[in-house]
Specification:
The protein is mainly alpha-helical. It is built from seven helices and no strands. It folds into two domains: 36 residues; 81 residues, no CATH class. The model has no long low-confidence stretch (mean pLDDT 88). It is found in: Cell membrane. It is a multi-pass membrane protein.
């Protein structure tokens, strides 16, 4: 199946399963391809993840910048059980994200499984597709466990 057909299929799947992010991403890439702006693809492939993470981090830091979170809240969070679990979760998630990035570099085709899994998560579990890198990290963890068992 060609890249164009795959993008159209992802667009249809995204619209059908109400995954606006998948549909929008497929549509943007489809437009870039159709108006012959494919020279942007290598830049998006190299820096797209960083750009996306930048906006994700900005959205997470908005409550801090707007004053909804103050130093008292931060101190409590860092010294409470939920806060300590958040630190542990953040460290584990960062490690898994790194492993996911390695997996995507070694086997970029795995992204289609991640997208399909995201669609299943959206439709069946009312999930949000905000963590394809984390999904790749969990996949890498699953593969590591399977390789250890073999």
């Amino acid at each position: 199946m060609s890249g164009l057909a795959m993008l159209i299929a992802l667009l249809v799947i995204g619209v059908f399963f109400r995954s606006n992010l998948i549909a929008a991403a497929a549509l943007i890439l489809l437009i870039l391809k159709l108006v012959n702006l494919q020279f942007i693809f290598p830049y998006l492939e190299k820096r797209g993840l960083e750009i996306g993470l930048l906006f994700l981090i900005i959205s997470i830091l908005v409550p801090l910048a707007s004053g909804k979170i103050d130093s008292k809240d931060i101190i409590y969070t860092l010294t409470s059980l939920p806060g300590l679990m958040a630190i542990l979760g953040g460290a584990l998630a960062t490690h898994l994200n790194g492993e996911g990035l390695k997996l995507l570099q070694v086997d970029p085709a795995v992204i289609f499984g991640l997208v399909f899994g995201s669609i299943i998560g959206i439709v069946l579990f009312n999930g949000q597709p905000v963590g394809p890198l984390m999904a790749a990290g969990i996949t890498a963890l699953f593969l590591e466990v399977i390789y250890l068992i073999k």
